[in-house]
Each structure stands twice: as structure tokens, then as C-alpha cells.
Amino acid sequence: MTRRYEIVYIFDGALSEEQVNAHLARFHALLASPEKPEPVTQLNHWGKRTLAYPIKRKDTGYYVVTQFETQPALLAEFERAVKLEDSVIRYLLVVNEGEPPRPVTAARAFGDSDDADGPEVEL
Q1: Is residue 90 within 8 Å of 54, Cβ to Cβ?
Q2: Side-chain half-sphere of 47: how many Cα atoms within 13 Å?
Q3: Mean pLDDT score of the chain
Q4: Which domain holds residue 81?
Q5: Is residue 120 part of a domain?
Q6: How deeply is 41 buried, as exposed, middle or buried, from its count of CB atoms within 10 A (0-12, 13-18, 19+)?
Q7: Which of 19, 24, 52, 122 is most buried by a 10 A CB count?
Q8: Is 77 left (phi over 0), alpha (psi -120 to 50) or beta?
Q9: Residue 109 lies in a domain
């Protein structure tokens, strides 16, 4: 039985995008199973950002948000690999419950009546 998860990585800001992609490929290979050979469902590179406070004496970090589906038994080795990687300065792994997120459109965010997808949102 597979479950949906979401992880936010903060890599060292000194890494290039190619180096980050190499680390991600290695991490995500640990999540593959025979029933789900491609576990990643969504991958978003947020890029380099200034951290709100220094983490491990770093002022910038490269953010990546990934959603994936895998068996819970495979998470132990995955988390161990992420923890041991020196270029990952922080990460957060959560169970993604509920329906998959829908992209927010400007019409839905500002409550335009032309959007028939859902109720108006008051900000």
C-alpha cells in the first residue's frame, strides 16, 4: 500500500542546479518500488532564497518541494540518506493527506464571480 508524502529540502546555497538534481535523483531512487517505479508526482524547484536565520552557518539555501507516493517501509532508508547528506541543511517530510492540491488561479484567489470552480474566498 502506497501513501502520499511531501518533502521540502533546503540544500546548501553554494550548490548548482545540476548538483541539486543529482542529489534528488539519488534520493528519489530509494523510493522506487516494483508497483511504483516512478514515485515522484510533483517536483518544484523554488531556487536560491535567503534564509530567515542562519542554519549551519549558511545564509542562503536552495529550496526544492517534492510530492511522491511510496511504501512506508521505504522511508527509513530514504530519511537516513537525506540526514547523512552534508549538502542538505534542513528538510521536512510530512504525510500528504486529503485531495491533491489544485493550482490557485488569480480569479479564485481574489474571489471573482467568473470562476465557477468553487465558492468565493474572502481575504
Answers
A1: no
A2: 0
A3: 85
A4: 3-98
A5: no
A6: middle
A7: 24
A8: alpha
A9: no
